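Quick start: what a row looks like.
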Amino acid sequence: MADNFNKLSMKGFLDNLKGRSARLAAGSPTPPPATDTSREIARALHPGVQYATVSSVADLPDGAKAYELVPDKIRGTEAFAFAPAGKYLTVFAEINGMTVTRPYSIASSPADSCRNKYMIAIKPVEGGFVSNYIIDTWKEGTAVKISDPTGNFDYQPLRDAQKVIGIAGGSGITPFLSFANAIADGDEDFELTLLYGSRNEKAELFREELDALAEKTEKFRIVHVYSDDDVPESDGYEKGFVTADLIKKYAPEGEPYSLFICGPQAMYNFVDEEIKKLDLPRKYVRHELFGEPHNASSIRNYPEGDFPATVCITVHIQDKTYSVTGNINDTIMQSIEKSGIAVPARCRSGECGFCHSIVLAGKYWIPENLDFRRLADEPFGGVHPCVTFPLSDIEIDVPAAK
């Protein structure tokens, strides 16, 4: 192979280009008829954007709601499909003139998508912008715009252990409901023991469904973990928080196991410290990146310094330039969106790369656990504005929203 490479001639390469240009110039401007259906199949399976209708709304504990979505064929979405379990959908919304996005884990199973159904569950958040808007406005028949299923929080047998300990908190239960259904359906082949942390039994989402799935298959087990002080001691659940000792109690002895974790930021902060005590190989610890970070100064390892409360953010999008005022406790993306400027975004957790941008000037900070940039990004100012907080006035080049 090396000998063949060394024999390549630049002149021959350039001569080939000349011939190619001549052939293109002599060709017909009309594209040939499509004979390969692979691209059509790819577009059908990965459309990028899907249109759906809310077919039903179910009330859940703590004011949460479960929304069942079906394809909106009138607007061009014929069918749903996804696999494996553990994916999320991004909801695109127009709120008070602002174009915003939020990711929500799919709670339904891949088998349900073959029946043209997605289900997501949304819990109200104090000060939450999109979640509270959805809960207040989505009704049966509401037309919605969503992404196709995406994400990396799925079981991969070449990397993950056969036995998995799941750790869920609050609405972080949704991908585990999808996992449990897929295991019961025979679409996933691993053993899942789920430690589900809640304040008490009344605060749990999908309790009856999860208990029924645990009865249906030996490969899924659920352990209810309650944190309220006034919850009485009982053999039917664990009391307190999900600690390293509790994980050890349910982890297999003498066998490798993976940890899958999904929940609010406060749970991640606590559990991540406990996981350090287990000395697990890094590949066995999996996080679902559940939404964007808030309140930068409250996040662990926020830099010390006398930073201004507000900053000027100069935003370049193609041939247009905007100037917006941002709060240093908001990410750059949050500040841009609050000014009514649309930017591309899906995961809002620094992972997907849709919002990849270049900082041209200014100081910024990215939480270490959300810094998924390529190695080449740091020296050239590459950032994901969904997880990047300004520390000074900043100038940034952002891709246009599609």
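That is the whole record. The chain has a mean pLDDT of 89. The first strand starts at residue 49 and ends at 59.
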